[in-house]
Every structure is written in structure tokens, then in C-alpha cells.
């Protein structure tokens, strides 16, 4: 009962906070950055270790500079996600435009379903929300439900306010079967870490042995739906741009693990180009191969 009360109180606080203009939220974000980085040392050891393992060629001064930039961005990202509750369609389109969307829309207009993937890079929540505004087909983002069912139900409702249909990761194949007769846009996070039991494919990612989810490839090869990568670029604070990049247009003709390597290498290059905007505080490498 106490947990439910705290969950509802937290939701009320987020709803009220989301009504503030972004300029005020970013001032709060600057204060949160100081608390996270200098006062509470929030996951600094995790971030430092991840960065040093990913970029062994960089000097410590470079690593620290990326680290600080990451935490400053993380603080802003938290308040941008808070804004998710009250952001309008017009503001979402203005802050998160899509380039080359016609490459995907062409398939959808012909009644052909498409698979897209992206990562926890930039503001993935705004990206998921905005995607529902840019394409004619219903978007089905695959997500991992939150542990708190009350907060998860509320957050799912917010994520779906522009027409998305969020699908829990373990319900993916059931959703595909249920929608096989309509035109859809299923979207996947290509940096989700599989459980140890599901870690069936390992590769080198950012200089480390890394288990990669095979769901995107399995579905693409089985359905032969074209795969696009939604490459997010941070333009400036609160403004992004998405490039719809054709990754694999004929999945049925690919070799085993070829698509998995394609999207993994694509993300790796994105991170190397601008490392501060990936989710470094996540324990991505807590599992290691036997």
C-alpha cells in the first residue's frame, strides 16, 4: 500500500513539473548535474570504467571531459523525459524532426511493413513519441516494462499519447502475429542487453565482448521486412534530428548474424563520433562470456 502511495505521489510530482517551460526545466537540470556528478557521485565509477574500456586509446583528460559532458546531458535528459507528459504534437515535431522519412513512408504507402531500430542515444523517449507523428502506419515500439506496475502503466499511457502501441519485449512475436495482416512499423532498441540465459551471440562492441539481442535479425529474416536505422543527432540542447538510414532492404538474402553485425557496427560508429550522448551509466557489460 505504501509503495502504491509513493508511486501515485511521484506521478503527481512529474505531471506538475512537466507543466514548466523547458527553460526552467533546464535550469533545474543544471542544478541536478552538480548533485549527480559532484555531490552524490552517481554511478561515476560505472561511467568511468565503461568509457576507459571503450576508448583505451584516449588520455584520462579526454575521458573525464566526456564523462562530465555525459552527466550534464543526462541531467537535461531526465527533465526532457519529464516533459514527455505535457509536450504537444507541434513541439515534438519541431524539436525532433525526421529526415529522409520518405524512404520508410514509401514502403508503408505500398502496404509493406517496416522494421526500425535505434539505441539509448540522445533522447530516445522523445524519438519514440515523435515517430508516431511522422509515419502513416501504427508504430509498435518494443520496450522493457518498469518494475513498478503503477508507474509502468502511467508511463506507457504517456508514451502512447500520439498513437504508438507499446509492446512488452516478451510479447513481440505475439504482436507480430496479431498484426501480420496490417501495415506496421515495429521499432527495436539495438543496445538492449540480453539476460545471461539469452546471451546466444557475442561480438566485440566498443572493444569489449558483448552479448547482442538477435530479435531484430530473426524477425527481419523470417518476414523479409526492410530494416532501417533511426540515427539520432543532437543539434543543441532540446533539439534533435533523426536520419532514416536504410540498413538492410533484403534481409532474407543475408547470412546468419549479418544484420546483427550491421546494426551493431552502425551504433558503434555513432558512439565513437559523439560519445557523450549514449547511456554510459547503464551496466551494459555486467555479463561476460563463459
From TrEMBL:
GO terms for biological process: glycolipid biosynthetic process. Its main location: membrane. Keywords: Acyltransferase, Cell inner membrane, Cell membrane, Membrane, Transferase, Transmembrane, Transmembrane helix. GO terms for cellular component: plasma membrane. One of its GO terms (molecular function) is acyltransferase activity. It comes from Pedobacter rhizosphaerae. Pfam families: Lip_A_acyltrans. InterPro entries: LipA_acyltrans (IPR004960). The chain crosses the membrane at residues 6-39. This is KDO2-lipid IV(A) lauroyltransferase.
Amino acid at each position: 500500500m505504501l509503495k502504491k502511495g509513493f508511486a501515485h505521489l511521484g506521478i503527481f510530482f512529474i505531471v506538475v513539473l512537466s507543466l514548466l517551460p523547458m527553460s526552467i526545466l533546464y535550469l533545474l537540470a543544471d542544478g541536478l548535474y552538480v548533485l549527480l556528478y559532484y555531490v552524490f557521485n552517481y554511478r561515476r565509477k560505472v561511467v568511468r570504467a565503461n568509457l576507459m574500456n571503450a576508448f583505451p586509446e584516449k588520455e584520462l583528460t579526454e575521458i573525464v571531459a566526456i564523462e562530465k559532458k555525459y552527466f550534464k546531458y543526462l541531467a537535461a535528459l531526465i527533465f526532457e523525459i519529464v516533459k514527455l507528459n505535457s509536450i504537444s504534437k507541434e513541439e515534438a515535431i519541431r524539436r525532433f524532426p525526421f529526415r529522409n522519412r520518405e524512404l520508410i513512408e514509401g514502403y508503408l504507402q505500398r502496404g509493406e511493413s517496416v522494421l526500425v531500430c535505434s539505441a539509448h542515444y540522445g533522447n530516445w523517449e522523445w524519438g519514440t513519441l515523435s515517430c508516431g507523428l511522422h509515419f502513416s502506419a501504427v508504430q509498435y515500439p518494443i520496450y522493457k516494462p518498469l518494475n513498478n506496475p503503477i508507474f509502468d502503466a502511467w508511463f506507457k499511457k504517456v508514451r502512447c499519447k500520439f498513437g504508438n502501441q507499446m509492446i512488452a519485449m516478451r510479447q513481440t512475436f505475439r504482436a507480430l502475429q496479431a498484426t501480420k495482416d496490417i501495415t506496421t512499423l515495429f521499432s527495436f532498441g539495438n543496445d538492449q542487453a540480453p539476460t545471461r540465459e539469452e546471451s546466444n551471440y557475442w561480438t566485440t562492441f566498443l572493444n569489449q565482448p558483448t552479448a547482442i539481442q538477435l530479435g531484430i535479425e530473426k524477425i527481419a529474416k523470417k518476414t523479409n521486412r526492410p530494416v532501417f536505422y533511426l540515427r539520432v543527432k543532437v543539434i543543441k540542447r532540446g533539439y534533435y534530428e533523426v536520419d532514416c538510414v536504410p540498413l538492410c532492404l533484403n534481409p532474407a538474402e543475408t547470412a546468419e548474424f549479418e544484420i546483427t553485425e550491421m546494426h551493431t557496427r552502425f551504433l558503434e560508429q555513432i558512439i565513437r563520433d559523439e560519445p557523450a550522448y549514449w547511456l554510459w551509466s547503464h551496466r551494459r557489460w555486467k555479463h561476460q562470456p563463459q
